[in-house]
Design brief:
single chain; 202 residues; mainly beta; 4-stranded mixed beta sheet; 3-stranded antiparallel beta sheet; 2% helix; rod-shaped
Length: 202
Amino acid sequence: EHVLTAIYTVILDVTPMNDIPNASGFTVSVRENAPIDSVFATVTGSDVDATTRKTGEFYNLTYSIIDGNANDENGTASFAINASTGKISVKGKLDFERIERYPLKVRVSDDGGLYKDIIVVVNILDENEPPVAVNCTGSVKENSLINTYTNCHIAANDPENTTLKYEITGGEGKELFRIDNQGDIWTDGAIDYESLPAGAKY
């Protein structure tokens, strides 16, 4: 009995399928006084299609912030991401006292319509900011007694809510006045109108 055999060549055409991009979330910190457009983090994505084919329709990745990017006090988005490089930069005025933490949802997309969403947590680092004060104009009669209130109050506040200290450091006749811990200015010496130069004021 003879056994007959036949050899056939089978050609399989493998159709490439698009794969979801890969990326991981992370936490980063940036100072509240960071300059506008300063880059402080980079989202790095990868796509398996880039390694299985030299070229392909699913190769390019794009980056976007789709949630968590709260506006600053002027209505400007706080952060921006470069669609091509994934670099995250400051776009708005950061204020630790207003928002301490931003959970940014970043989408990494390929050209085939697939994507992966990750969370980039941005912690804002507090900076010591100078107090804000408003000028005042007061008046006092000459020959007023020492400790006479001048009707002048320095309205001031500190963004960090720390205790403020007041001091008169200069000006005409500064030795004739004192300022208390509440920002009120009082006389601290003899006030003599005639001794002032013409048109001068304390």
